[in-house]
Amino acid sequence: MTDQYAVFGNPINHSKSPAIHKQFAEQTGQDLHYAKQLVAEDGFATAAQTFFAQGGKGLNITVPFKIDAYSFAQELTPRARRAGAVNTLALRADGKILGDNTDGIGMVHDMHNLGWDIQDKRVLILGAGGAVRGILQPLLEERPAQVVIANRTLSKAQELVAEFHDLADMKACEFSQLAGEQFDLVINGTSASLNGDLPPLPAQLLKPGASCYDMMYGAEPTVFLTWAEQNGAAKLADGLGMLVGQAAEAFYLWRDIRPEVIPVITALRRQLGEKK
Ligand code: ATR
Hints:
By secondary structure, the protein is of the alpha/beta class. Helices cover 38% and strands 22% of the residues. Helix 1 (17-28) crosses helix 9, helix 5 packs across helix 6 and helix 5 packs across helix 9. The structure holds 2'-monophosphoadenosine-5'-diphosphate.
């Protein structure tokens, strides 16, 4: 029987994961089927149980179930444990369900593909929610000079710094405390851009040659990337490459083969443009 995979979420209609994994499977000659499944808000554990009981081999997990998936997993990778959230479940040979979080490594690989260096750079992260927590360990393992987390609610940034400061030099602040600071790389991890909002940022925030990365993406440049362009960023990227990157790492965990991400990013970008 063809190996079965799926993505669980709510909502799930617009998920690009089935299209991404279909392209990975074609590229690598893997025989698998990948579906999307709408799961009731309180129904994650039952749905996941059923999926694996029926012979399913692996799941991707999206909003709002990444913490449920963390609880559901019988074993966790170190990066998933640190993230406190799971975006990939895999049935292992011994029958146990392994939980991983590939969001951070997906973002870091995307930056490598873009030719961006993180090592020794001064990095600013905007936001301190679940999305930011999910990427911190892989980002910090790239050995940045310092990572500053700025958030509207200071205490949430402080909590993340307390949890992760063993991995790198870190600092928490509010947006108003960014005046006079300068960075090589700024990553937007707030959900503000979903509403077209932007945290208040000082004009001189970017060093010459700075890179700006938005974990969100859309058919049009995000408000953060528009700000970045107007404020002297040399390099810009949105989160489409991160989306494909996290999928590639999940595929690798399941199938032990690494697909090519660039052709898939190019195809998705073209589709986004066509839908405008
Ligand atoms: P996610 O899983 O997408 O990270 P989250 O955990 O709710 O969602 O976190 C959302 C992040 O975006 C938080 O850092 C939030 O700031 P607060 O911690 O102060 O709530 C940030 N955010 C959302 N809307 C924002 C806005 N309009 N301006 C600034 N930050 C915003």
